[in-house]
Structures are given as C-alpha cells and as structure tokens.
Automatic annotation (TrEMBL):
<keyword id="KW-0560">Oxidoreductase</keyword>
<protein>
    <submittedName>
        <fullName>FAD-dependent monooxygenase</fullName>
    </submittedName>
</protein>
<keyword id="KW-0274">FAD</keyword>
<keyword id="KW-0285">Flavoprotein</keyword>
<dbReference type="InterPro" id="IPR036188">
    <property type="entry name" value="FAD/NAD-bd_sf"/>
</dbReference>
<dbReference type="InterPro" id="IPR002938">
    <property type="entry name" value="FAD-bd"/>
</dbReference>
<keyword id="KW-0503">Monooxygenase</keyword>
<dbReference type="GO" id="GO:0004497">
    <property type="term" value="F:monooxygenase activity"/>
</dbReference>
<feature type="domain" description="FAD-binding">
    <location>
        <begin position="4"/>
        <end position="342"/>
    </location>
</feature>
<dbReference type="Pfam" id="PF01494">
    <property type="entry name" value="FAD_binding_3"/>
</dbReference>
Length: 398
C-alpha cells in the first residue's frame, strides 16, 4: 500500500476517523469537506466500547474520558416522573469489551480530538462534491467550485445525504423513523446527574435522555412520536417543547427551560434501507453514507469509527487497494445490517403509545435478568476480530 492515496469526502466523525486510521497504516490521505469552516457544532454523542477498542488497536489516543468527555458509569431507565425502572453499571452492560470504556462526549470535543490526531492531513474546506470519475486505475473527484483532485481510492464519508452514495446508487429520500428529536447540550448540575450518569425517561410515545458529558455539561434529548409530515415540517419552539414534557421529572423541565432556544437542534428521526453493495472499483462508502441508522443503539458515530479502523486494516493487508475496499465491505456488511435493523426495531418499542403495551414494556424491563436485558447492547458494543498484521506508523510518521 506504499504511496496509495485516499480521497475522503466528508470531515465529520467518520471522515476524520478514516483519515487518522489510514495514516496510521501508511496511506496518504486528503480530506474534502463542504463546510466553509470546521466549527465545534452538534450536540452530544456516545463513543461506545467497540469504537474505543477499535481506536486502541491503531494506537489512537483522543483523550476520551480523561481530557475529553465522561466515562459512562451508570445507566438508568426511568418513568416520566423520574422513578427508576431499571439501573445498571455500564461495565456490566459492555462486559465483553474489558479495558474499553464507553464515553459520552460533545461532538465538538470528539471532532477536536480527531483533528489533533490528524495534524498534517490536508483538509480542503468549502468543497461541495459534484461527481467522481474512474481515471485509469484510480478516481478523480470534481467539486462545484471547479476544483478537482485525483487519488487511488475514494471514500464517501459525506453523511446520510451523501453525494457519493447518490452517484453510486441513485438519489432517494431518507426513511422516516417515526418520531421527532430535540437535542442540546448545556451547563447543568443536578443531584441525579452523578459523574458518568446516563438516564432515559420513557413515557407514552415520548422519551427524554440526560447524559453527563464532563466539564459540568449535560447532553439532553427528547423524542415525540408524530406523523412524518408534521415532523419534517416542525415549526414549534420552546413553548411547544415544554408543553410536550409538562408534568415530567423536574430535571427534564429545568433543562428545557435553561437551554437557549437557538441551541436546541430539531430533526426528524431518519435512516435508510440497508444496501448490500456499498461501492465499486476504487470507491466505497463509510459511516452514515453507507449505513445510516436510528439512534436506539447509540452506534451511529461508533460504527463509523469501527468502519474506519476495519478499512485501514483491510487496505494495509490486501494485495491491492480495490480488493482492500471489497474486503472492508464484506467484513462490515453483516454487522452494520444488524445494527440498522435492530435500531429500527428498538425505536418502535421505545416510542410505544398503547397503554397496555407500555405496561408490558415496563414489566419486561423490571423482570428480565440484566444479562438478558442488555445482551443486544453488549453485542453492539463488542468489537469483532480485526486483522492487525500490519506495521503502524509512529505519530510523527503519520
């Protein structure tokens, strides 16, 4: 793979993870991002133990849980009034991945960690990809402002509305997940929010999440089941949001009240039907461009980090780059298909509106042995075996 050049379209979490990972195995990288600047945007994100373990394989230290984010310690599911239904230690949920903690973090902090680790990587901003073309054994990418670049391989890491995916598979609308999401981060102190605490309050067609992300900050989110058109054209403000959670636990109402309206991100839940073939020739997809999923497994960002490390492994050990891309896709297909499908099924259970089914859901949560209750999340949080038969570059070489 000496002198192999990879073009990465997209500088989100997946694109930056790919840039850092590929450089660690000696592949030249350049990143092209449509945003005019890389700002600390977004809200919170969970870096689950499988992603932390993947980064450890390549010796990538982002300071997760030390200088960035908060290590998950306790996870609770509560009712709308704040009464605990089930509680567990995070180490019991992800017990099959010892030594790899789960970390809740602000997206901007995670981005900063990857940018620090990718120091020296060319990152071109304001670059909106228009199309790619096969160019001999490589690929050429053209951008709307007239710029273009050429490399041996192209990685589309440009999100759920990926231009690279659309050229490969045709443009199509996203698939609605059944509910609207509100998300924000804010400085917050509360007796319930102990260090590393994560709580989900489950109601009737509504949920509220509260997570410690370190440095005295909370990441919170709310969901409400509603018709697709209403969610995609939501015009409500804080008053409507507060009304949706009226009568819920005091800390949930306080969070909504203290968060500036302009800091609340509102987005319909969405994913895409899984595609079996991600790329062709010298082109592939990664992260949300390949397998966007609902939030129920909290694996959107973590699966893209896992993608990046598997991609680095296959490119570093394959006889040629194109075969490396196909091996990457083959290794990721079954696991990510399961994540997409499972996240959607869990979303249905989480957003139940039928009172009888809610009673059954609560009984299931209370009575099921914890090992059985959390086995789906443990499966997601356990990194599959990855071929590490390659030489890592030192930080200075990368």
């Amino acid at each position: 793979m000496g002198n192999t050049k990879a073009i990465i379209v997209g500088a989100g979490i997946g694109g930056l993870a790919a840039a850092v990972s590929l450089r660690r195995v000696g592949i030249d990288v350049e990143v092209w991002e449509q945003a005019p600047e890389l700002k600390a945007m977004g809200t919170g994100i969970s870096v689950i133990s499988n992603a932390v373990a993947a980064l450890q394989l390549l010796g990538i230290d982002l300071g997760l849980g030390t200088i960035r984010g908060a290590v998950g310690e306790t996870a609770e599911i509560l009712n709308p009034k704040g009464q605990t239904i089930v509680t567990s230690r995070a180490s019991d949920i992800f017990k099959s991945q010892p030594g790899a903690k789960t970390v809740c973090i602000h997206r901007g902090d995670l981005q900063a960690g990857f940018l620090e680790a990718s120091k020296g990587t060319p990152i071109h901003l304001g670059a909106v990809a228009s199309k790619f073309e096969r160019d001999g054994k490589g690929v050429r990418v053209k951008f709307k402002d007239g710029r273009e670049t050429r490399g041996d391989i192209l990685i589309g890491a440009d999100g759920i509305n990926s231009t690279i995916r659309s050229q490969l598979h045709g443009a199509s609308p996203t698939r609605y997940g059944g509910f609207l999401c509100w998300l924000a981060t804010v400085p917050f102190k509360h007796p319930r929010m102990t260090p590393g605490w994560s709580g989900q309050y489950w109601g009737t067609g509504k949920r509220f999440g509260l997570h410690d992300i370190g440095q005295g900050r909370a990441y919170w989110w709310g969901t409400q089941t509603m018709p697709e058109q209403q969610a995609r054209n939501w015009k409500g403000g804080k008053r409507e949001l507060a009304r949706a959670f009226e009568g819920w636990a005091p800390e949930t109402r306080e969070l909504i009240e203290i968060t500036p309206a302009e800091d609340i991100v509102t987005v319909p839940s969405q994913d895409r039907p899984f595609i079996e073939r991600w790329g062709e020739g010298p082109v592939t997809l990664l992260g949300d461009a390949a397998h966007p999923m609902l939030t129920s497994l909290a694996q959107g960002g973590s699966s893209s980090i896992e993608d990046a490390v598997v991609l680095a492994s296959t490119l570093a050990t394959a006889p040629d780059p194109v075969r490396g891309l196909r091996q990457y896709e083959d290794q990721r297909r079954e696991r990510t298909r399961w994540m997409v499908d499972t996240s959607r099924k869990l979303g249905v259970v989480e957003q139940i509106e039928n009172p009888l089914l809610i009673l059954l859901r609560t009984a299931f949560l209370k009575l099921t042995p914890k090992g059985k209750l959390w086995e789906t999340f443990e499966r997601a949080g356990t990194l599959p075996p990855i071929n590490t038969a390659f030489k890592l570059q030192t930080a200075s070489e990368a």
